Amino acid sequence: MDQVILGKTKIKVNKNGFGALPIQRIEKKDAVYLLQKAFYNGMNYFDTARWYTDSEEKLGAAFSWIREKIIISTKTGAQTADVFWQELETSLTNLKTDYIDIYQFHNPSFCPKPGDESGLYDAMLEAKKQGKIRFIGITNHRQTVARKAIDSGLYDTLQFPFCYLASEEDLQIVNDAKANDMGFIAMKALSGGLITDSQAAYAYLRQFDHVAPIWGIQRENELDEFLSYQENPPMLTDAMEAKIAGDRKELAGNFCRGCGYCMPCPQGIEINNCARMSLLLRRSPSASLLSAEGQAKMKKIEDCIHCDQCKEKCPYGLDTPELLRKNYEDYKTFL
Ligand code: SF4
Ligand code: SF4
To answer: Ligand 2 centroid to 69 CA: how many Å?
Structure first.
């Protein structure tokens, strides 16, 4: 079974981390079953967030009795120290624990530092002093903030999107995190569903011994797929290399990752799916995308008032309204 040491934390986790965002969408009993099955089959690292509605509660229900046997990271999107403390207490209650292994700032637009006016990093230090958290982490989709977090030396871990579609700049961040002894937690290892070959995704990431991917898991067959890689880790084959090269060519450049940070849209447009519809149509089952409901969602693009809120919030610098327009044109042709 592949293992990863998370940098200076010295925490050792299974290479298969469990991303607990998707378990929001399933019933509690089903989530508890999935989480416990993951644990009994060797997974020991679970990542969640205060923003993932009841995900923390489900983790608490599954693991409170074996707390010390697993590693939990969660996240706070707090913008002020007061909210930070409220969220930390809520997370501890939900997770039925008195400590969090890695507490992360959730995609902040800046890199919190001691003494800055937000007071967030000072609150982190105080929480660590009180024993409520063990290590301080940060998650981000922006290269600029990730780079500042690495250079600051203030963070034990960095959670950043990393998959085989990574750019040279992304790779530099991955390598610099290692050079600075930071744990590297890879989110979006399937690029929000655009990578459909999980074996190739796993095999690619396996080349980086310091990278701990967290796979978003909602269904038992998805869990089984990743569990099978523990016994038989996929190796990069020529066929996989060819597939990766093809995907890089097709998906290179400015594609929507489906992260949803540009939302909500005042016109109710489901941007995180509509802005990558052309790719979804060609890379995943299309029946629901083309259903009456799917068509209604795409038609809402006609209501765009070009307020540019989404464009300003997109961490990838995408021209989101233009992307929506192009995807809608293509969708109508596809229909
Ligand atoms: S530009 Fe259009 S899609 Fe973007 S937030 Fe404004 S209304 Fe919504
Ligand atoms: S447009 Fe940007 S922010 Fe919005 S879902 Fe896509 S990648 Fe994320």
So the answer is: 36
212-267 pLDDT tens trace: 999 999 999 999 999 999 888 999 999 999 999 998 888 766 789 888 889 999 99
C-beta 306 within 6 A of ligand 1: yes
Map tokens 């990766």 to a residue.
244
- The per-residue pLDDT for range 53-67, each reduced to its tens digit, is 999 999 999 999 999
Q: What is the residue whose two structure tokens read 């084959």?
A: 237
CATH class of 3-245: alpha beta
**What stretch(es) of the chain map to CATH 3.20.20.100?**
3-245
Distance of CA 126 to the CA centre of its chain: 26
Question: How many other C-beta atoms can be found within 10 angstroms of the C-beta atom of residue 196?
Answer: 13
Tell me which DSSP letter residue 182 carries.
B
28-58: b (≥16 Cβ within 10 Å) or e: eeebbebbeebbebebbbbbbbbbbeebbbb
